[in-house]
Each structure stands twice: as structure tokens, then as C-alpha cells.
């Protein structure tokens, strides 16, 4: 009887170990699947061959936070160059980003930041920019600076824009709906193509964030 109990315990331990290994393998297979090139492409994510260290920019939030590595520390940030009078791209992108943000698991949500840099500093003050992005979600951040500083930052990131003619009433600014993807150390690692693929981003971002934490 005692021998039988010992054998049963050994069998139980073996089954438990196999299940644990199987679960671990399943996790890493799923993780690899989430982060392979085809999955990234399906989500509209384009990674740079190597991370790009961004120079500090003369941009600031309404409370004086600067566009530098300290601002990006600890989070993955999606950066949109837009403006509050934008008729289509910006409200669409920010609405989609809100959908993604709210649908993420809590741990992943803590690692995601959204920042809009205004490409229309003539009309967009830091206060107005922050008020605008907060309408979509209170966690979103708005930034701006003088036109030269905004252009320098957008060119450094690879998302240039064409300034509007401020002498014309109701002028518009030509800009892209693509986003910059900044890692928690303040390096640009890629782009997210617009219009956003909400479902695919919800699926892949937790894996991307988790990998960055483990590394």
C-alpha cells in the first residue's frame, strides 16, 4: 500500500512537471508568434533595423515636462504629430488609440503612453493641446513648442509635415497619420501605420511590452 502511494505521488509530480513545461512552451510559442514579422506587419508595426536615439527636443507639456528620455521612461509611447483643428486624421487616430488602450490588460495598459505633438503652434497652446487629447483619454499627453522645434522633432522621428498658411482663415496642416513607437528608454524603435488596425494592435502590444520588460 505504501509503495502504491509513493508511485502515485511520483506520477502526480511527473504529470505536474510535464504540464508546467507544456504551459511554458505554449507561452513562449505564443509569444514568438505574437512578435514575428508577419504578426507585426498585420498590426501595422514597422520596426527599425536598430533603435534610433532621439535628441532632446524643445517641446513641453502644459506642466513643463520636456520631450526627452525622462519623459518616455518606463513606458512604450505612441507619438502622433497632429493638431486640435484637424478635421479627420487626429480625431480618428486618437479615438482608435483610446480603443486600444482601454482594451489592453491592466499590466499592459500601465506600459502604454500616448502623446500628441501639435504641428500647429500658432493656434495650439500647451493648454489647448492637453485639453484636446484629454477629451479622448485623461492619460493622453499633449505637447507643443515653436514651429522650428516641432519641425526639428518631426524630422528627427521621420514624420515630417507641411505647415499651414497662417494668413489664410481656417487653414489646415498636411501631416501623416502614422505614429512613432518609442521604447521605455526613449529610443525610437519603429512606426505604427495609420489608419490603425485596432484589433491586431490589441492582440500584439501586450506581447511586445512583456518582451521589453523581460529583456
Task: Draw up the topology in text.
Layout: H1 2-35, H2 37-42, E1 45-53, E2 57-60, E3 66-67, H3 69-72, E4 76-82, H4 89-103, H5 106-109, E5 112-118, H6 126-136, E6 141-143, H7 147-157, E7 179-182, E8 187-192, H8 198-214
Parallel strand pairs: 4-5, 5-6
Antiparallel strand pairs: 1-8, 2-3, 4-7, 7-8
Helix pairs in contact: 4-8
GO molecular function: metal ion binding
Keywords: Copper, Disulfide bond, Membrane, Metal-binding, Transmembrane, Transmembrane helix
Family: Belongs to the SCO1/2 family.
Can you give a write-up of this model?
Cu cation binds at residues 86, 90, 175. The chain is α/β, with parallel strands linked by helices. The chain has 2 domains: 1-33; 37-212, Glutaredoxin (3-Layer(aba) Sandwich). It has helices at 2-35, 37-42, 69-72, 89-103, 106-109, 126-136, 147-157, 198-214, and strands at 45-53, 57-60, 66-67, 76-82, 112-118, 141-143, 179-182, 187-192. The strands form 2 sheets. Strands 1-8-7-4-5-6 form a 6-stranded mixed beta sheet, sandwiched between helices. The longest helix has 34 residues, at 2-35. The protein starts with a helix and ends with a helix. Residues 1-34 have low confidence and may be disordered.
Amino acid at each position: 500500500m505504501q509503495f502504491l502511494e509513493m508511485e502515485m505521488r511520483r506520477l502526480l509530480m511527473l504529470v505536474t512537471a510535464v504540464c508546467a513545461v507544456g504551459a511554458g512552451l505554449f507561452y513562449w510559442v505564443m509569444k514568438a508568434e505574437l512578435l514575428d514579422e508577419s504578426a507585426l506587419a498585420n498590426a501595422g508595426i514597422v520596426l527599425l533595423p536598430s533603435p534610433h536615439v532621439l535628441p532632446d527636443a524643445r517641446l513641453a507639456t502644459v506642466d513643463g515636462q520636456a520631450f526627452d528620455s525622462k519623459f518616455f521612461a518606463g513606458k512604450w509611447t505612441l507619438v502622433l504629430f497632429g493638431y486640435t483643428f484637424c478635421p479627420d486624421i487626429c480625431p480618428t487616430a486618437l479615438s482608435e488609440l483610446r480603443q486600444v488602450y482601454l482594451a489592453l490588460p491592466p499590466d499592459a495598459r500601465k506600459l502604454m503612453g500616448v502623446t500628441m505633438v501639435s504641428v500647429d503652434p500658432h493656434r495650439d497652446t500647451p493648454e489647448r493641446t492637453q485639453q484636446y487629447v484629454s477629451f479622448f483619454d485623461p492619460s493622453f499627453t499633449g505637447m507643443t513648442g515653436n514651429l522650428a522645434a516641432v519641425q526639428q522633432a518631426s524630422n528627427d522621428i521621420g514624420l515630417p509635415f507641411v505647415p499651414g498658411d497662417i494668413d489664410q482663415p481656417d487653414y489646415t496642416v498636411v501631416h501623416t497619420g502614422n505614429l512613432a513607437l518609442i521604447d521605455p528608454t526613449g529610443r525610437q524603435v519603429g512606426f505604427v501605420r495609420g489608419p490603425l488596425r485596432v484589433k491586431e494592435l490589441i492582440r500584439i502590444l501586450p506581447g511586445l511590452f512583456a518582451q521589453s520588460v523581460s529583456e
